[in-house]
Amino acid sequence: MHIIEIDPLALPSLPLGERSHLPNCPAIYFVMQGEHVLYIGKTINLAQRWVDHHKWNQLIALGTPVKIAWLSCSDKNLLTQIETALIRQFAPELNGYVTDKKKDPNYGLLRGLVPQNLLKRFKIYCVENGVDNSQGLENLLSEYFEWKDQQAQQQTVSPYAKGEEDK
After folding, report:
1. Which among 14, 60, 107, 114 is most buried, taking Cβ atoms within 10 Å?
2. 3-state DSSP assignment of residue 11
């Protein structure tokens, strides 16, 4: 089977809330929201991995049904290679996969320190919107500057238009 032939919708799956029924096997797993792949991971024991997964709170916070689909892998040595290829193929947001933004000359790196309360609110925003930090920052900056542009347009009224309103 080639990586491109893997269809997460055709794989065995369980709702997130039934994770205690996952099999004890090495696997690549897909966290799905409907037909959308949110996250891809690898593990040598699928059932054990989901006892206390680091994405659990983030997935629960989505507030929509989420399921775990899996592809059993008898050769544990191939897990990393398969996971990497699938992450490249599906580019799931919660893996923090950035689709070539680092290579895109239209993007630049932005770093800085913010107060903890703003950081917490920003992380909640990202979880609620199902985006990574990079996309969350891009979304918020775009929204802010669109709002700023609208404010500027509303304050700039041409003299002719103003004269028409006074008549």
Report:
1. 14
2. coil
- Predicted TM-score (pTM) of the model is 0.59
3-class SS at 53? coil
CATH class of 3-95: alpha beta
Q: Which amino acid is at 118?
A: L
pLDDT, tens digit, 9 for 90 and up, residues 15-34: 999 999 999 999 999 999 99
Q: CA dist 66 to 17, 32, 55, Å?
A: 8, 6, 12
Task: State residue 156 phi and psi, 5-degree precision.
Answer: -95, 100
State the virtual CA torsion across 146, 122, 57, 100 in degrees, nearest 10: 60
| Residue 27 and residue 72 in contact, taking contact as beta carbons nearer than 8 Å | yes
* Helix ranges, 39-115 (H): 46-49, 56-61, 79-90
**Alpha carbon of residue 7 to chain centroid:** 19
